[in-house]
């Protein structure tokens, strides 16, 4: 529990030196005093002579504490707990700004605690109680339900010797380079030295029933948040050196007596600027969890492995919504027999309407804050969705994803093959960022847009999909995931990825992509829909969309039956020219002059231009099409 202390990255890395940005905010000091402004208050505080400690205090105020509380409305009275209070950089200006609040300030470092006591006395603050204890693990030393006033009397005495006897020392360690930096547990490296500090069990804090918690307790965050999970803490702010389970915040109410009460949380992770445990109360009333929508049609042979894969991700907040899209092979009965008593599995029967309609139906029936879509014949790997939900909560990202593997079959035998991403520099060369015990990478949306549609290894924020009006087009009866991928990546731009969790993408002869029939023409119709949306919304980054079109046309043409390829090439050329005449030449400048691998594609494109000679560029071209762009028409006309 460092005093408003020198920050340190997550173990085992040593504490980092001050950054130039912080140096720019270095406080004015005279001898051992610090002039400080916070929460509308101006005050002079006594501070230990460590310049980094002073600078870090000011950095926290400006970067974390003031922004976290600026958007909140606090009641006139309440109880606040400041863990890692230091010399009072947060507790004292807060107490001056909110005189109706009682503030408990816990600080185990003797020098910082002495300064804290001197500052309280100098300001005449009788609403701040300084306690020379760390806060961490251990069973509560006071029986549950005790009168908080009794606990308060014990702590308020602030008799260090008496408290040390009452709350025995527990292992901590101190940074050798920055002695003010303390953290729980044994030393992680030679850069730290062991020490022991009298420690208040975190569970005891529940008896104080705080409405606000300021947390600076490296390596003790999970113990503290677990202990306060069911207490009416409405405001959480501070910094963390670990990544506690996000459900401690997202599945906790500020008040057990008022289950709809909000809990505001802003807890960034030290050394990981993209990560923060956050939660804000707003109009969102959805259950804080993840629903995995499984579109199922005649998948009796596969569905159990799929659902079991989803259930391999622990947590009651992760559920499987199996949408039976009018199966005729008893798939629905099997799901009912296998999982009828499992509260994490819900069977949703409906009339047959296609995969897109099944996915949309599952999403409509979901009440979760996050949603995912998987195919009934695939196998999500162990922990895939629980880890992705954690990443989604810590980053706040609209879309997060894991890796995937090809799941091959040969009779009864199965084997897995790494996907192309495992050796693609576009993924392997990305910088890695620490997340919990592993790492994540930030994948540019453009790299994913031009690749294979892989919506099934992703988790989406439901509000993101709703606000952007992204749905599966139900008139498209195959490959509807393509337009969903293009739209979500266009809006999300960058996607955090956990490479070490995998989705098993099953390969078998019954897949739509292996049929080679008229359904391949659906891709053209979806790109025409994308063309219209791009123009209506004024997209200004078109090369990824155009690259995706080129890759899709080349790949689809190669898998079609030979008798369908000429029609497909003509239709693809029609749409390409329509894009050119709609977007203008600038959008195509980064593409190869001849990007298509189809035979005679250049001839077809030139022929379309010849037919349209003399007609200028216009957005109107986006609203024209041809028979060959529509799979049902290709099927009925035999083109």
Automatic annotation (TrEMBL):
Domain named Glycosyltransferase 2-like: residues: 292-436
Domain of life: Bacteria
Regions of compositional bias (Low complexity) in chain numbering: 1-10
Extent of Pro residues compositional bias: 11-20
Residue numbers spanned by region Disordered: 1-24
Signal peptide positions (record): none
Name of the protein this chain belongs to: Glycosyltransferase 2-like domain-containing protein
The organism of origin for this protein: Rhodobaculum claviforme
Lineage: Bacteria, Pseudomonadati, Pseudomonadota, Alphaproteobacteria, Rhodobacterales
